[in-house]
Amino acid sequence: MAARTRLPLQSLIHKNGNVFRSDRIVHTAIQEPVYPPIVPSLTAKSKSAKGRQIAEHLDKVRAADVQEKLTFLTRVQRKKYVLCPQTFALNADKWYQHFTKTAYLPGLPEKFIVDETKEESVPDTQNASSTIDETAFADIRSHVCHSILQENWYMKKRQPFLQREQEHYVAPYLRNLVSGLTHAMAKHNPVLQLSSLDFDPQVNFYWMRGQRTIPRGHRGGRVEPIRFQIDDKPHSQIRIPHQLPQFVPLEVVMSAEVPEIKFAPDLLPMFRRQYENNIFTGAKLPDPGCYGHTQFHLVPDRYRRDKMAKRNLNDQIEVYLRANGIASLFAWTGAQAMYQGFWSHEDVTRPFVSQAVITDGQYFSFFCYQLNTLGLSMETDAGNPRKNVCWGTDSMRLYEGVKDGAVVGLDDSVLKLLVQFLLNRSG
Amino acid sequence: MFKETAQRLKAAGPLLAQTTLLKEVPPRKKPRVKVDIPGLERITYGDRMHYVPGLAKPSFPTWVRDWNDPSHYYAPKEEEMPLHKEKPCFIFNQRTNALEGVRQALWLTKSKLTKGLPDQVLSLAENEANQIENQDERVQNAIRHARFWDTTEERPSREKFCMALLRSLIHLCGSLQVSHSGLGRRILAEKYSLAATWNRGEDLFQVRGQNGLLLNSIAPLPVLAGKEEVQSTADHVLETFYPISPTIDLQSVQVYEEQNHTGFKEDYPYPHAHTLFLLEAGDTPVTLLPEQLRAKMIMFAFGNALARAHTLHGTKPRVLEQPIVVQSVATNGRMFQYVMFQLNTTDLQADEGVKNQVWVENDQLLYDFAKVHPLIKKRVVQIPPGLSGYKPETFQKFLSLYLHGAV
């Protein structure tokens, strides 16, 4: 138009701007793109193509439902470190804390009143739901004594085979203890009425933490994540359909630190194998009891106090229990979180809480775990301030021994703590 | 040789003259007995210190170690053992597969059979107050957990799901402890060993060994049949199965000890055997058919009752004023058998007199099918995947047996 009239376009615009505006309808909204967005290629042999492939895969995983998500994350089998909760390795608890990004706090959260004197001096301010009355406690105490005595005194039994005393004497008594306590506590804790009690269940978890440079081979020089797998077999566990309440808020900054271990996991020692990557809470996805309440672990014969003392490993007794508690509970809470659709790139929006009691029959240790983050892989760990927390006690003796058909030296405080553990519920 | 060839040879076995694959293992030959003829001196090559053809083999006295080494122990012959007796004893143990099943068990225990559980027990579960919240849904979830969800693999094995199902059902029933405090006065005993002895006819019988899970309680079970009914059983005639002997399939031993032991000490706080749970999960070499499983249940329930009676009143045979009741539940993961045994008398020698009583519920299916993959024939779904055909009555009977004595 400007060429035909031989007038400079600029002067026309400035003089008759309104005329032009009224003639043409100009869309002030963003114009629809006529061409597709410019993204890196998907199939080219370039770094940006690889990046786009990874991004598309992550989007596909995010969009899938839970069962498919689990399949995507566990489909590819590669060599991974097998983390045994009941391990012979020395000082394994620090290493396990590093692998699971767990801060360990000695003692239990304020919820569990351990101090007996505190209880007696302040009876009125106690919450009625956190304690039970004397008759119920006496029933529980007698049931516990009878369970101990049944296996050790009343029942006619052969001598156990060598190194099988725990399975012979303690495992049946622990089963009776757990089921008896659960049924007795169901009156005071309604969530236990809807619980499922599993004996000899299986708990598995698979995750990636940290990275390493592949030293040799056709993939040498490349950076790959370090994979871990826990295959745990607790003695028994209680699963509930509702989640336990958190101990501390999700974003709170804990005083304890996660220990940093710069060595490769091989030095613990830990060994790598390649097999099925399982993520399992004890029941498959459709089970309504998808949240965990309490796990009970039995210390095997090899790690009993007397056997450890014979091998001059007295200091390792507590370390072993801590490592067991941290690893087992991390696996359980992690699996519970993955069953809800969270994974390393979609971090948990609410903390997952579970408890564990580890015992060798006589000595009991109590652990509480709060899973605050699943983002442990190399991409998600970089800017992640959250860490998981584990509270734990040292081992406490429940009874001294069995003499002439009676349990000697039964400690009520340990029983009270057990009761408190089982009374934990949401709302 | 190739697998297919081996299979075909096996199929054609009887037709072939030389069947190397079907060779029967011959019975062990008895060692040659050395006869010592008095007055005849045996010329042996013992002095010559080497074999000489024509001379007899010398027999040296057996060398006996002068100290007792437990890892080199030679057991004496059966006849020389201290507990050897002339009269054989017939033992019913956990591996016994009785040919005549329930009939044989009834004859051995001198019992009268009644089909179906007594009404006072069945009515326990029909009462609204005794039911669990969302009972059907929770039982079905328990079955699904045991059958499908308990493992990372496709399906758990029978040994696993049988035990898991039983434990889940017991846990469900135990949740009623909230409303019935009597349920708390019980305890489970695993791997207990039973011993009970009695004379029947001219033979001696025993029930021995570990059998299953036993639920013990502080209080005894209430008596099912009153005094008149007990006296009327004296008219009942026991069913015999001539020509088969009642001792068939029982382990006959001549080295035994007559023991009567409940498996627990005298001052056990839970002295009364409440329910015996037997599992038929296919992990033993012998798979029991339902009839034989019911026989096993009857025998072990009887054994528990008899051991208790002997502990209370002594081994002298008598008619009990207070009959002892023991229950039993057996399952293979899908089919349940229920037995209630009432011991009225320990006088089992003669065929006449007051009899014991047995109530049996046969072959109660808890559910029809629990399939991981659907059964599709000609593109029509015959059996859907998952749990199908759940029958609530079976669990009601289980619950009523569990609640019996505590309500």
From TrEMBL, chain A:
Places the protein is found: Mitochondrion
UniProt GO cellular component terms: mitochondrial large ribosomal subunit
The organism of origin for this protein: Hucho hucho
Ribosomal protein listed as a keyword: yes
Alphabetical UniProt keywords: Mitochondrion, Ribonucleoprotein, Ribosomal protein
Keyword Ribosomal protein: yes
Pfam families: PDCD9
A molecular function GO annotation: structural constituent of ribosome
GO terms for biological process, alphabetical: translation
Protein known as: Mitochondrial ribosomal protein S30
From TrEMBL, chain B:
GO cellular component: mitochondrion; ribonucleoprotein complex; ribosome
Biological process per Gene Ontology, one example term: translation
Major localisation: mitochondrion
Record key words, sorted: Mitochondrion, Ribonucleoprotein, Ribosomal protein, Transit peptide
GO molecular function: structural constituent of ribosome
Subcellular location field: Mitochondrion
Pfam families: PDCD9
Entry-linked InterPro entries: mtLSU_mL37, Ribosomal_mL37/mL65
Family statement: Belongs to the mitochondrion-specific ribosomal protein mL37 family.
Name the UniProt record assigns to this protein: Large ribosomal subunit protein mL37
